[in-house]
Amino acid sequence: MAEKAKGKMEQAKGKAKEVAGKATGNERMQAEGKTDQLKGKARETAGKAEEQARGIKDSLRGRHQEP
User: Fold this and answer.
1) Which end of the chain is more exposed for a tag (fewer CB within 10 A), N or C?
2) CA-based angle 63:52:56, to the nearest 5?
3) Per-residue pLDDT, 40
4) H or E element in which residue 5 lies
5) What is the CA radius of gyration of the chain?
6) Can you say whether the dihedral through the CA atoms of 34, 40, 46, 51 is positive or negative?
7) How many other C-beta atoms are found inside a 10 Å radius of the C-beta of residue 30?
C-alpha cells in the first residue's frame, strides 16, 4: 500500500508543479510536473500489482493449509 500512496502523492505534486508552470509561463516546470505525474502513475500501478500478487500468494497459501 505504501507504493500506491507514494504514487498518488507524486501525481499530486506533479499536477501542482504543472499548474504552477502554466501560471508562470515556465515550460520547464510544466514539463517536470507532467513527468512527475507519469512517474507517480507508474509507481501507483506497481503498488497495485504488488498488492494483487500478495493477495494471490496469500490466497494460495490459505488453500494449501486447509485439510
Assistant:
1) C
2) 15
3) 96
4) helix 2-24
5) 18
6) negative
7) 18
CB 17 within 8 A of CB 32: yes
Q: Which amino acid is at 12?
A: A
pLDDT tens digits for 5-49? Answer: 999 999 999 999 999 999 999 999 999 999 999 999 999 999 999
Write the single-letter amino acid at 35: T
Question: In one letter, which amino acid is 67?
Answer: P
Tell which residue, 8, 10, 30, 9, has the closest CA to residue 21: 30
Q: Grid coordinates standing for 44?
A: 501507483
The closest of 59, 9, 14 to 34, measured between CA atoms, is 14
**DSSP readout, 12-65?**
HHHHHHHHHHHHHT-HHHHHHHHHHHHHHHHHHHHHHHHHHHHHHHHHHHHHHH
Cell numbers describing residue 37: 505525474
